[in-house]
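Late entry, evening session. Most of the bench is empty. Finally got around to the prediction I had been postponing all week. Sequence below, unchanged from the version circulated by S.P.
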Amino acid sequence: MKPKSLLPGLAVCILIAGCSSTQTVVYRNPGFDTGKTYRVAVMPLKDAPGHPGSGDTFASLFESALLANGNVEVVERQEIDRVLRERRTDPSAEFGNTTAASQVLNADPIVVGRASDVDKALREQRPRPDSSAEFDAIAFGKLVRADLIISGRVSNWSRGTQGLLGLNAVKTAVGASVKAVSVEKGIVIWSIDKAAEPDFLTMPLDAPVDVVARKLCRQMVVGFMGAKRQP
């Protein structure tokens, strides 16, 4: 019997030692079978405002949490990167003039065109495009032979401060919205909107952001696939 916390649209609170959590909103499609082994591709998430790279870092941590859980097969990051680079829109569109492109290639003058060396240089300058803006999850999932695509955005990525003698302390905070889309059915089968911060009893208030994010990812994966399977 599945726990009631897995019912669609139910708001739940997940508390794990070392990281206090705000209220969590979880949706799970009633037809989602957690007993099946899925091939999952974790896309780079959209960055938190003012924190470039936070989406890619969160995606890596989420992938690690999936692997530690052991209930899924995870598409390798190298494969995802390869497909992202190959399927990107024309990279020269990102440059309004030839100056930026010439700096990438360390060449002057430069002839604008679709030569392979120009294309390669521009693609490599931005190896991780914002997948949420440039790619259709279903189409991408088919390219990497995935059953589920994980995507979303990081809403908060802020490092806290201890403050003088504990006064005016600000906790590190991480928040994200993540969803899993079925490549076969083209529907969202699971989503979560969750935030977390340190618990001062077991973790410094100004703990590194990636430490809090790692805890948050573990909590999310437990809510997604259930507890780790026993051998």
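Two things to note before I forget:
The two ends are 20 Å apart (CA to CA).
The chain has a mean pLDDT of 76.
Will write this up properly tomorrow.
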